[in-house]
Amino acid sequence: MGKKILVVNDTQSILEMFRELLEPEGYEVVLSSFPIQNIKEVEQIKPDLIILDIVFGNQKSGWQMLQLLKMYPPTSKTPIIVCSAAISEVRDQEGYLVSQGVQALYKPFDVSLLFHLVEQAFKTSEASMQKKKQS
């Protein structure tokens, strides 16, 4: 299998849709229907990319997971795409997301845009790893 993508979303049909879209593209897809509170679990999964919703039910616990991921050194450089229908909430946090290198994908989304953002996240991640090796 290729690169591993962790998808975190509380809607089972959306999780399955991500699997159906990404696995044929050669990605290994790991699904979670709730935000992972113990970030060490994410470290054990070792995802190359995380696609994360920010609203679970009426809780905004995806934001907490995002902050934990960015503050924990082993996961801080893992590329993240926030995928949410909470467009105004995501736009309100756009400055923070940009500063953390997090992409935003709004539901409903065009599948070609999903693939573009996934490819872009991997290219950016690989470029930063190359820079790190050269310094």
UniProtKB/TrEMBL annotation:
- Residue positions where 4-aspartylphosphate is found in the record: D53
Q: Which UniProt keywords apply?
A: Phosphoprotein
Q: Does the keyword Phosphoprotein apply?
A: yes
Q: What is an example of a Pfam family matching this protein?
A: Response_reg
Residue stretches making up the Response regulatory domain? 4-122
- Gene3D superfamilies, sorted: 3.40.50.2300
Task: Please name the GO terms of the biological process aspect recorded for this protein, alphabetically.
Answer: phosphorelay signal transduction system
- PANTHER family cross-referenced by the UniProt entry: RESPONSE REGULATORY DOMAIN-CONTAINING PROTEIN (PTHR44591:SF3), STRESS RESPONSE REGULATOR PROTEIN 1 (PTHR44591)
Its protein name is Response regulator receiver protein
Q: Which organism is it from?
A: Ktedonobacter racemifer DSM 44963
The organism that produces this protein has a lineage beginning with: Bacteria, Bacillati, Chloroflexota, Ktedonobacteria, Ktedonobacterales
